[in-house]
Amino acid sequence: MSAKEKFTSISPAEFFKRNPELAGFSNPARAMYQALRELVENALDATDVHEILPSIKVIIERTSQEKEIYRLTVEDNGIGIPPHVVPDAFGRVLYSSKYVLRQTRGMYGLGVKAAVLYSQMYQDKPIEITTAPLNSKRIYSFKLKIDVTKNEPIIYERGSVNNDTGYHGTSVSMYILGDWMRAKSRVYEYIKRTYIITPYAEFYFKDPEGNVVLYPRLTNKMPVPPKEVKPHPYGVDIELLKNMISRQKEDTTVKEFLVKEFQSVGEKTALSVIEMAGLDPDKRVQKLTDDQLSKLVDAMKNFPDFRPPSPEALSTIGADLIELGLKQTFNPEYVGAVTRRPKAYQGHPFIVEVGLAYGGDIQPSEEPTVLRYANKIPLIYDEKSDVVWKVVEEIDWKRYGIEDEQLPLVVMVHLCSTKVPYKSAGKESIADVEEIEKEIRNGIMEASRSLKTFMTEKRKEEEARKRLLTYLKYIPELARSLSIFVTDGKKELAPKVQEEIQNKMIDLVVTKLNIKDKDLELFKSYRVETL
Ligand SMILES: Nc1ncnc2c1ncn2[C@@H]1O[C@H](COP(=O)(O)OP(=O)(O)OP(=O)(O)O)[C@@H](O)[C@H]1O
């Protein structure tokens, strides 16, 4: 036996190729869904974040009969990608335009590359990208793969043509081993849920069976886009600080550094923080020792008077668009939504939005249907391990007037943040961070109070209607007695008069109470003798 271990290192590309399930590529069905998601989310980030109304086309075609290989294409009308970054954006794991403090769907710089790595494991065609940045005179195209060992793009083809039409946007096609029958319901669910939260987008979807579904744009109103912000002092650590300091000019002082590089820090606040850390405000920041850096971080984390992190970096959907999306999809009897005030955790701002829909076309079931969203991404898998589920499970709906055994209820929760605490790189569930959990609970409770008012009104109306229906039951008997009275007992005249009286009385009550045909049928089924 040898006690010698062999040590080597691997590239990030190699790591995700070896562990595709960490990024959501655990089997062909899931991979199909995940690859589609990554492309659609990039397409949406390239549009609404830049105030472009999204038009997204998704096409899945089967290309091989022997193996289940599919060609997945997603086209957008977004800002496009500068040609010099295309190879790295699609061929270098952990390369992104989204490593800044601003709410976007993308966060890790991994998604599309994880899809490419999965793609090239089971078939040999490269990914194809066609793109034109805004105002570009040319349209660029690339075919590439990833060199897994070096974590670098390998370019197979590149070219460009004139852009005479002012086109801008990106089209990406990739070939992947999939399992359509197993992926189908999740893929459709994903598109439906994406549509609910982006009613200002239009989608065209063609599935591999040839079915085409169009999701029309419901409104031209778009959420206010997020702005990039500086870090908040509560969110720093020693490594981040060192990294930021390494980019400063040599003569930048500690005070200047704090004021220039962080949000919520003016001169006065900077001086108080530096005093708390026991440092000299005029010292050059690059000269701070490790010990001094550690003291500065402690002071920044514990200083009590910073303004909370700026919500400008966030982009909520807003109650009206949430209601629009829910109405369109579920045709409910009741819909309501709230956008909570901004809160913060670990130096990151976050906002919770909650939408509730009840009754109408919603299929009743033992548990409410929960729609989870983070930064406008629908989360479909791993529902039960999500903090949203944990909170929803604890809600006692009876307190809000919902007595049904089977609930016709949809609960939608949207978390916006510059950092969503996902449990994995596949972005399917949110970890239970205390501050977020509390805010989700408060959001659901706030939205439920309006639902309760609606339920109370509805119950009152139902009770009043029931009482009145009971009165209605007496009409035939009353009409009969009156007809005998009016006709002085002339038996041959009585039935006709009785019918006339009865119809008039019914008309009167039906009009007054706005009784629907269904209830009228119910009334007609009553017999005096059953009273
Ligand atoms: N359709 C597109 N339009 C514009 N830019 C795009 C498009 N697709 C990809 N990109 C660029 O490529 C980069 C890398 O995308 P990728 O999916 O790998 O990671 P990400 O979106 O940054 O983060 P995440 O891993 O969280 O999805 C993006 O940050 C974006 O700049």
Polypeptide structure, described:
The termini are far apart. Mean pLDDT is 92; it is low at 527-531. The protein has helices spanning 12-18, 28-45, 86-91, 111-122, 180-197, 238-246, 254-261, 267-277, 290-302, 319-330, 387-394, 434-472, 475-486, 494-513, 517-525; strands spanning 55-62, 69-76, 127-132, 138-147, 152-162, 169-177, 202-206, 212-215, 334-339, 343-345, 348-358, 369-374, 377-379, 409-417. 38% of the residues lie in helices and 19% in strands. Helix 2 (28-45) runs antiparallel to helix 4, helix 2 packs parallel to helix 5 and helix 7 crosses helix 8. It has 15 helices and 14 strands. The protein has 531 residues and is α+β, with helices and mostly antiparallel strands. The strands form 2 sheets. Strands 5-4-3-6-2-1-7-8 form an 8-stranded mixed beta sheet. The protein folds into 4 domains: 12-215, Histidine kinase-like ATPase, C-terminal domain (Heat Shock Protein 90); 233-302, Helicase, Ruva Protein, domain 3 (Orthogonal Bundle); 311-448, Ribosomal Protein S5, domain 2 (2-Layer Sandwich); 473-530, no CATH class. The longest helix is centred in the last third of the chain and has 39 residues, at 434-472. Residues 38, 42-43, 46, 76, 78, 81, 89, 96-98, 106-113, 170 line the site of adenosine-5'-triphosphate (ATP).
